[in-house]
Design goal:
The chain is mostly helical. The protein has a domain at 31-66. Helix content is 73%, strand content 0%.
């Protein structure tokens, strides 16, 4: 099961690390601290919802295999 694999050993880990670094570098270019914080929070929310969506899809797939 994917969630039994440590995060650093997952196949998508390098891509996630690159995306986080890119986001961090882009946020440094935003001078308005309030806007920077809003963008950071919004990207975090998108990430959270993507994980939740994947989790739900996995549960549905497991139920279909029954």
């Amino acid at each position: 099961m994917l969630y039994d694999i440590p995060m650093e050993d997952r196949p998508e880990a390098p891509e996630i690390a690159r995306a986080e670094e890119t986001l961090s570098e882009l946020l440094k270019r935003v001078e308005d601290p309030d806007l920077r914080e809003e963008i950071d929070r919004a990207s975090g929310r998108v990430g959270y919802l993507r994980r939740a969506e994947g989790y739900a899809a996995g549960i549905l797939a497991a139920l279909e295999d029954r």
